[in-house]
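Before relying on records like the one below, remember that each one covers exactly one chain. Contacts with other chains, cofactors or solvent are not represented anywhere in the record.
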Amino acid sequence: MSKRANKVVIPAAGLGTRFLPATKAMPKEMLPVVDKPAIQYVVEEAVDAGMTDVLMILGRNKNALENHFDRVTELEIALRKKGDKRRLDSVEQPNDLADIHFLRQGDPLGLGHAVLRAKRHVGNEPFAVLLGDDLIDERDSLLVQMLDEQEKRNATIIALMEVPAESISLYGAAAVEATDDPSVVRVTGLVEKPAVEDAPSNLAIIGRYVLRPEVFGVLEHTEPGKGGEIQLTDALQELAADESIAGGVYGVIFDGRRYDTGDRADYIKAIVQLATDREDLGAELKPWLRSFVAGLED
């Protein structure tokens, strides 16, 4: 059994062009999902899984992320004077979630390059990579299961999810073999955004990884792939093809609640789903939604 991963890398250097003009001056990771920025959900997921050391890989003009996880003394004083404990708690919570570090990516050379930038911080130990576009419902323990599998198998673990066959070209796709656990498969190959007819399966890679440090050595010689970027999927393909490098690659098949905030329509759906599940909002929103949908049908 290997050491359990405690460090988390969150790549957050993207430009967020699909959400322009909203992301012209505000990082896409700071777009609110109900009343919290998307990035906070991701950090909370890591903390809930027992991870306390977070490294965010940033691009230019992403200072808002650093500010969000820092103290705002004047606001805290004002809320404290008003006796508004609920809002004060919500403002103070991000400050104390974890030990959060920030590092500039520099050249925008893709996800693989962003992960490689974490090499010095991570060192020689397993670590997790969480992408901010994928939010996993707090009621589902995907990351905990992945950490357990990594510790048990001493291998690379990725999260997989079945998607409609016609949608697989939007994702990395995995070729797999069964294991003794029906929720875990051995990954034998990976293809980044394949054509529908070329996809090895309809199991898509979603934005959760638990990696061994050997991935850094692979990324250092991974040539740019699709889009001229260094693809993490290409490095994982090399690890899957040669188990002697880092114990192979295994996939945890996730069938829980995932919210895609990287697409405008799915972002709106995520807000509606999460808001209607909330005790403080659901009772008001559900009857309104029923009435609104009935009006659409008319």
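The longest strand covers residues 184-192.
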